[in-house]
Amino acid sequence: MTVNASSVPLAYQAYTSAAVPEWLNKGDNAWQMTAATLVGLQSVPGLVILYGSIVKKKWAVNSAFMALYAFAAVVICWVVWAYKMSFGEELLPFWGKAGPALGQRFLIGQASLPATQHYYRNGTIETALATPFYPMASLVWYQGVFAAITLILVAGSLLGRMNIRAWMMFVPLWLTFSYTVGAFSLWGGGFLYHWGVIDFSGGYVIHLSSGVAGITAAFWVGPRTKIDRERFPPNNVLLMLAGAGMLWMGWSGFNGGGPYSANIDSSMAVINTNICAATSLLVWTWLDVIFFGKPSVIGAVQGMITGLVCITPGAGLVQGWAAIVMGVLSGSVPWFTMMVVHKKWWLLQSIDDTLGVFHTHAVAGYLGGILTGLFAEPVLCSLFLPVTNSRGGVYGGVQILKQIVGGAFVIGWNIVVTSIICVAIGLIIPLRMPEEELLIGDDAVHGEEAYALWGDGEKYDNTKHSGTSDDLTPQHKASSGATQVV
Predict the structure, then answer these.
(1) What is the rounded distance in angstroms from the CA atom of residue 69 to the CA atom of residue 325?
(2) Is there a single domain that holds both residue 390 and residue 468?
(3) With contact defined as beta carbons under 8 Å apart, do 183 and 87 qualify?
(4) DSSP-derived 3-state class of residue 121
(5) pTM for this entry
(6) Per-residue pLDDT tens for 435-476?
(7) What is the C-alpha to C-alpha distance for residues 322 and 320, in angstroms, rounded to an integer?
(8) What domain range includes position 140?
(9) pLDDT bracket for residue 110 (50, 70, 90)
(10) How far apart are CA 285 and CA 218, in angstroms?
């Protein structure tokens, strides 16, 4: 059925014209918002569930809440000042000028990024990375959920002992003085971007930085209690797997949204991401079987994560066979550093990295960046990178040297800045929980517990916990003095 344009009210025609300008590519915009939502779901509820399940019961609420709080805090800080520090006008070669990303005209205007090459397909120009064909609001949100998940990953090193008030201060400070520097340097037009260091979708900006910052902050916060370090079983393995599954599936948006367009690179990124993750999971699992006699479920999740992290710096820039090679190495090198090096090196032994974020994100992220420098395919590079003639070592390039230097900068900056932030916070409020809270856990920190389970030797105090007598079993009503109505 056709509609006569003259029969459509002029006000509606003006509205649709303004809402769908000529430069808007609906397919690109739909994919970018979908990718951003997938990345957001990796954090909330993905990592909230994973963190709340992979720790022992007494830390379930605190661990999940650290992730939830970080997500909310980063979203606000991001739109008020941090986005422009990452993607705005240059203040320093590694840092942008702070400013709000809240104005209507700014958000509904066409997204813009540092000048780079165009995408090419069959000799024709595709969407240009410098001017994505969708509103700035889509780009601000996509990059915002990237920033949020980075802080949540840092939290993985600090679970089970960091003062929640200190964490509430740490989140905006680290976002401002660490994350924005990496993002601007590698993505926002900084010196590493123009030099040609490759970070397709956050292997350095997100994973290397969070892994290094996590273990650095863990050093300053101090270890968990002795009993927690010796025995820290997950309180719900099945829920942990549910959170891990959300993390894996959400990674299609994490890497697939990297080109800022629904194009060839985004498709390559998605398939390579899943190839590498699957390979890494299998390799890690078989190493556990060979050396420890049993396949570890937690180990499989760690292998999955290292595969996802490793492919991230070059997801849309390598061939499928290279993704398999990267999966084999991401399932074995971090396994070796975690299971062998960690147990023999006194420095790693002295620092309590609760979830091994250093191994799963820092080691895997740096490994992925270096391997990208080895396997980056010239034609795929020409579709994405701002520097011409970029190519991996196997194709005769010197990209691997740039990758090593770029990673070294991210490592050095995070060690120094994270240390300064922790020391500064420590002058105001203790970084570590009081001993009483460390012994009791969630109930002491939040006045809440993850599971209302009774009959395991605990005494129910109805003056302390909320709820009515109807919440109790007849046995607990009797023991608590509650009146039982028949």
Answers:
(1) 37
(2) no
(3) yes
(4) strand
(5) 0.87
(6) 999 999 999 999 888 887 655 555 555 665 555 444 444 444
(7) 5
(8) 38-114+129-435
(9) confident
(10) 27
